[in-house]
Amino acid sequence: MTDNQTVQAHIDAWTHSIEAISELLAPLPTDAWNRPTECPGWSVRDVVSHIIGFESELLGDPRPIHALPSDLRHVTTETARYLELPVDKRRCHTPVEITSELEYTIIRRSRALRNARHQPTDLVRLPLGPQGEEVPYVELLRKRVFDVWVHEQDLRRALREPGNLASPGALVTRDLLLSGLPLVVAKQAGAPAGTTLAVEVTGPVEFLRTVRVDADGRGTADESVTLAPDARLTLDWETYLRLACGRVRPEAVTDRVHIQGDHELSTRVLANFSLTP
């Protein structure tokens, strides 16, 4: 795909996921809004509030004036504080207010994306803190697809409404997570030079990647098959997602991860599998 086609594909994937969230919430009873999700400290209401807050900031809306409580134990970093503020501000909002704001935000953001004149490589602000960071426009869109789709799945698990595990957003997420797999193996897990580790994922999104650590300690991943890797991990797509996004600890899903070969190396890799803050 060309860069412009990639931009449009990302917009389409974002639209698919955020509209799916809106549809998921429409029939929700009031008590379901307080169900906990796998995001520490966040309920269903909080996850939706986060999405609204982030998209609103991308639209240029001013951040709410609000003082965070001092007893939020899940808020441990400055980035977390930054992201928590628009969430906590909405904790007193009713489900009707939240769903209405989400629908209005989707309309506004969709219009802004249609009318955007950014080139794929133009630098734009990604608001992950007071200063944010400058990223290419196409990368901002990719990260918004990732964030919205992953939170769609957070909501689906909390509400026991599975779906869209192989949607366009899932494929964008797969590629983003796989781009970090060599770092997990070579750096975070400290795999020695010469190591090969195969990761096989089954289910709605299937793939096989082999990570190799070169003599300089750098990792690379490709689709080639190694007959005798040092270790091999086999797991389903949803478990891969939950581990890579820090939603669950490896010891909680031992029945869903099959290890072959070097068990100690595999355990280190799984312990460092999360790529999200």
Automatic annotation (TrEMBL):
Domain Mycothiol-dependent maleylpyruvate isomerase metal-binding as annotated: residue spans: 15-156
Coiled coil: none
Keyword presence, Repeat: no
Isomerase found in the keyword field: yes
A molecular function GO annotation: isomerase activity
Domain MDMPI C-terminal: 181-264
Keywords recorded for this protein, A-Z: Isomerase
Name of the protein: Maleylpyruvate isomerase family mycothiol-dependent enzyme
Protein species of origin: Kitasatospora terrestris
